[in-house]
Specification:
alpha/beta, Rossmann fold, 5-stranded parallel beta sheet, 10 strands
Length: 351
């Protein structure tokens, strides 16, 4: 008489889930230990600052005369071949319009500013600490965690080119100036939090249209009407001004004077005192962008009116020409030349 085969024990569904969760937890822990900044971390690693970078960039698809060049960031994270931090007299903070990824070093507005001031007899060194996608949220972190860890850095001026990215800042745990110790530790050390920050920032930038691309301005249509389905949610101007005040205090801690510079975009303009903007098929158009950025720029000027910092109102005082932008936010070498010369005229008495 044959025996019935023994049935193999089976795991309950909850057991399978528990095993999978344990494996996932082990994998995430391994990632944190390998790529996080928990043990023996370099201070700049906490911010994921790109350092010692040499990358070949081609600007040919973006604007006429664009060429291939080497994009560099030095061991301290500043753009360029390397500079003694003790020699930096003017430090510049901002997002992609400060970094200018698709402009050769010698064509950036920082290079134009330095050449212009030196030509007028000022012995200055202008450093570029711009990072694509950065808003005042990131600049606070830069001044708390990056600049204090750069040896011998004592600039006279810190220029903060700000506005465009802050239109899209939302209230999150990362945006608060009153983060808890735990959330601050996670933000500074966790590889997974940094990865999520990069992904979330990229998605937000894509949603907002804040990415490098070539725009044919000869084929756009202008309108006086706001977008029919505009989704520009208003950021908290009170929070924005609080971040500017925090930035001011942190710059003064470096022994420098803060200078805020307002920003403009190429998808709107004033014609006979009326705002007109470039039409879009969906989402906010140039009129919406113009109104949104005007609110941010107004808040910047209000902070300066408190006597806390100097403001340079580039948004209303500098007139751009056709060919100065290759998309709605980013300047060509021609536009950067205009910015650098304009800044040199206004900063001469400060440096």
């Amino acid at each position: 008489m044959s025996k019935a085969p023994r049935s193999r024990p089976t795991l309950a569904p909850l057991g399978i889930v528990g095993i999978n969760l344990a494996v996932l937890a082990g994998f995430l822990l391994a990632v944190e230990m390998a790529f996080g900044e928990w043990i023996g971390a370099h201070p700049l690693g906490a911010l994921n600052i790109p350092r010692s970078i040499h990358a070949t960039i081609s600007a040919a698809p973006l604007y006429a005369g664009g060429k291939e060049f080497v994009y560099r960031r030095d061991a301290m994270g500043f753009r360029g071949p390397g500079v003694d931090p003790a020699r930096i007299t003017v430090l510049t903070l901002g997002g992609s319009t400060t970094n200018q990824l698709y402009l050769p070093e010698e064509a950036t507005w920082q290079a134009v500013l330095e050449r212009s001031l030196r030509r007028d007899g000022h012995d200055v060194v202008v450093a570029n600490a711009g990072l694509d996608g950065q808003s005042t949220v990131g600049m606070v972190a830069d001044l708390e965690l990056w600049m204090p860890n750069v040896p011998h850095l004592r600039p006279r001026l810190v220029l903060v080119y700000v506005g465009i990215n802050d239109v899209y800042v939302r209230a999150t745990w990362r945006d608060s100036l009153h983060r808890t110790k735990l959330t601050r530790e996670l933000e500074e050390r966790s590889a997974l939090v940094r990865l999520w920050t990069v992904i979330a920032g990229s998605l937000e930038a894509r949603r907002a249209g804040l990415r490098h691309r070539a725009v044919d301005f000869s084929r756009v249509t202008w309108t006086r009407q706001p977008g029919a389905a505009a989704d520009l949610r208003r950021p908290s101007l009170a929070d924005y001004k609080a971040r500017l005040r925090r930035i001011t205090a942190l710059i003064e801690d470096l022994g420098a004077a803060p200078v805020f510079i307002t920003q403009t975009r190429a998808d709107y303009k004033m014609v006979n005192g009326e705002l007109i903007g470039i039409s879009t098929e969906a989402g906010p158009n140039g009129v919406d962008q113009g109104h949104a950025l005007a609110r941010i720029n107004g808040a910047t000027l209000e902070v300066c009116q408190e006597g806390l910092a100097t403001c340079l109102d580039l948004a209303t005082e500098l007139h751009f020409e056709p060919g100065d932008f290759y998309d709605y936010e980013h300047n060509t070498p021609q536009g950067a030349e205009r910015i650098g010369r304009w800044l040199a005229e206004r900063l001469e008495g400060l440096v």
